Amino acid sequence: MELFLIIALTHFMALLSPGPDFFLIITTLLRKGKKSAHWVCIGIALGNALILIAILSSLFLLEKINVDLLKYIQIGGAIYLIYLAYLCFMYAKTPIEFDIKSVQNVQQSHLVFSNIRMGLQSSLLNPKNIMFYSSLIILIDQDFNTVQKVLLSTWMISIVLIWNLLVLKLISHKKWMNWLKAKSQWLYYISSGCFLFFAMILIFA
């Protein structure tokens, strides 16, 4: 029980620290609307699930985590973050009027998969997620059996999804949306800078 509380606290503290996923949710909300951001949250949770499945499978089959794979993901993550920084920079230079009805119509037609994919890529190409979950799984490897590891992983994925949806609900409130729209250009620039900052950390870490 004590180990679980430590993991729960560590996981919660990790959620509190804004990362690429957080800025992706904000920029999607501003650019495409709440429904699109909702699907991004689902994609992020799905990415976390795939990471945990890969880690658990690696430990079960190889009894170790592939370090070389982490390096490739780190490089891929840096490239993807630079790409997101470029998109945000272009969004800031060419702001658009936010039309909620238009966004909803586009969302219903063909952008669901695209938004899930963006969240999935953000999660899978974020080495912070892989290193964080790897550390936790290694920590509990000797004390938890397979069923307990699966249950803990499911719990962590659920918390990620609930937390991101809660954050989305809070920032999509009318009062906050009016503020976000008024400051959208600067938020795009800030998000672009943050994505570049995260990318530089990956490149020079």
Descriptive notes:
One of its GO terms (molecular function) is amino acid transmembrane transporter activity. This protein is mainly α. The protein has one domain. 87% of the residues lie in helices and 0% in strands. It starts with a helix and ends with a helix.
Please give a quick description of this structure.
It is a multi-pass membrane protein. This protein has 205 residues and is mainly alpha-helical.
Q: Give the C-alpha Rg.
A: 18 Å
Strand content: under 5%
Q: Tally of extended strands?
A: 0
Coarse structural class: mainly alpha
Termini, distance in Å? 34 Å
Largest sheet: none
Mean pLDDT equals 75
Main location: membrane
Subcellular location: Cell membrane
InterPro entries: LeuE-type
GO cellular component, one term: plasma membrane
Helices and strands in order:
Layout: H1 2-16, H2 20-32, H3 34-62, H4 67-93, H5 100-124, H6 127-140, H7 146-171, H8 174-182, H9 184-204
What would the keywords be for this entry?
cell membrane; 9 helices; mainly alpha; 205 residues; Lysine transporter LysE; transmembrane helix
